[in-house]
Amino acid sequence: MKPGMSGRVLRLDGDGALRVRLLEMGLTPGTRVQVCRAAPLGDPLALRLRGYSLSLRREDAMRVEMEAT
Description:
Largest sheet: 5 strands, antiparallel
Distance between the termini: 11 Å
Order of helices and strands: EHEEEHE
Low-confidence stretches: none
Helix content: 10-25%
Strand order of the largest sheet: 4-3-2-1-5
Shape: globular
CATH topology: SH3 type barrels
Protein name: Ferrous iron transport protein A
Mean pLDDT: 94
Pfam families: FeoA
Domain Ferrous iron transporter FeoA-like: 1-68
Keywords: Iron
CATH architecture: Roll
InterPro entries: Fe-transptr_FeoA-like, FeoA, FeoA_core_dom, Transcriptional_repressor_C
Strand content: 35-45%
Number of strands: 5
């Protein structure tokens, strides 16, 4: 998703420590997420979810399957 777009989390790909960490950060299925901005080279991304801001590397964000709303 591009800056300014929003959607909701469908699922997280993969397993292991990264998946657990994404869940701990609030990226759970059904959560609404807005992409606020991307750094000049596209990494990291600034997201807004659950009333707080989150900065996430593009590589990690690719593991979050989203549905645009």
